[in-house]
Amino acid sequence: MKKILLILLLTFLTSIHSFSQEKVTWHTDANAALQLAIKENKKVMFFFTGSDWCGWCIKLQKEVFNTSDFKEWSAEVILIELDYPRRTAQTDEIKAQNYQLQQMFGVKGYPAVHFVNVEKLDNGKMNLYSLGKTGYVRGGPNKWLEVANSILEKAI
């Protein structure tokens, strides 16, 4: 009987832990995400990555983006992932969007993280104001978030 209660208790605690760990929302449709940023008055973080081949991108994901510290921090920004995979299929629309944004930001290497402020103009178009950029930062989530916060704080 004690074993059954112990198993039930462990199962319950595990399910609560899994339920409480919500995932970070990464947008892939840049236009929709930018509209959301305007609506919620948030800054935007573009993450340029080669998810299935770039070692530093994978390392940044593991060490920073997949942590609870990043999850908590990311509630204050809109996250957009722009992926340039070699083995993973993408729609033509996503490929075209990602290529256009890569050219616009002048991204030549990965990972690249750009922070912007979005302004909607009277004619319905949007302006993106660059706040700064970074990439992989050695030292884990605290060091990376320190760099990201310094970029965002300069913009205030």
Description of the molecule:
- The chain has six helices and five strands, in the order αβαβααβαββα.
- The chain is an alpha/beta fold.
- A five-stranded mixed beta sheet has the order 1-3-2-4-5, with helices on both faces.
- Strand 4 and strand 5 form a beta hairpin.
- The radius of gyration is 19 Å and the shape is globular.
- It starts with a helix and ends with a helix.
First-residue to last-residue Cα separation: 60 Å
Beta strand count: 5
Are there runs of 5+ residues with pLDDT below 50, and where? 5-20
| Broad shape | globular
The H-and-E topology, N to C, reads as: HEHEHHEHEEH
What is the percent of helical residues? 40-55%
Report the biggest beta sheet as strand number plus sense, adding barrel if it closes: 5 strands, mixed
Number of separate helices: 6
Q: On the 0-100 scale, what is the average pLDDT?
A: 89
Which strands sit side by side, in order, in the main sheet?
1-3-2-4-5
Class of secondary structure makeup: alpha/beta
